[in-house]
Amino acid sequence: MQKKKQLNYVYYFIQLVLVGLLIMFICTHFAGVTATEVFRDSKENIARCIYCLLFSFLPYVLKRWNIHSTRTLQVYFLLAIMVHFIGGGTLNYYRDVWFFSFIVHLINSFLIATIIYGMLLRHCQNQSKFFMFLSTVAFTALIGVLWEVCEYAIDSMMTGSNMQRFNNSVTGEPFIGQRALQDTMIDLMMDTLGGVIAGIYFAFTNIKGVPLYKFLELKYVKSEDTNISYQQDINQEGKLEQAKIERKAIKLEQKNLKMKKKLENKQNKLLQKQERKNEKLEKKSIKHNQIDNKTIKKANKKIKNLNKQNNTLQTEHVDNENFDNVKKSNNITQKED
Prior knowledge:
Blueprint: H1 2-31, H2 42-56, H3 58-64, E1 67-69, H4 71-90, H5 93-96, H6 100-123, H7 129-157, H8 182-203, H9 212-215, E2 218-220, H10 226-336
Antiparallel strand pairs: 1-2
């Protein structure tokens, strides 16, 4: 519901912009003032703004005939009309920017193909993906051909019109041969390319969430079923919002799980580092203890050896003293004799 309100504000804002442009062009026309060379054709600019405003009320007219469209489709449609009339006509981008026409045809054909795919999916169920793809491309190309026919009819009936770009927009000289058909053929190729891109995207890809054609839906609703369809739309919107909330909750849970895993991994890494450090310290202490034991053993051996040497020296000294005493006693006895 909030998105619907936002899109309503966007739609009303675009209408106000168109009204402001219309007032500005009317004032410049009657005052005889031209702000720049871009806005020199004031009558055509007034007509373009009126066309855009009339097209902006088209969804309300279609509603009277029970043809309902989503607000996103209405916003896209109005923006496409404004790009064509205001961007291409008033700002002369069709003349000054050579690729502007091709981009407009590509984007508009993609949007048309999206609407067509949604309608086909609604009325042609249980069909193959290839059938949906071909039907989308064929109907999009057909609409592109009808648009080129309309351009040809307008150029034929209105003097000075150059919608098919068969004349040089600067000099007014007509192109000759294949160059005169270049704009029409490239427009048709862009229309077909937009249909092919949309057909491949919707028919052959697995779309996660709500597909685009659900937001760009054009459907016929019987007058008896309008209230039921309105309630169904509200229920669908509620379901979509619930699904989005559930997806967000799942994403948050996944993020929390990832964060927990990261924290656990970091803690495990820190514990492993501490264990490695402790192991290294234990190994170092064991080595130091082994070295200390070896030095103690060596010192004890040295002490034992010194003690042995002292003992031997003492015994030798005693023996020498005894020998001297014996000698002295022998000498004394000899003298007495």
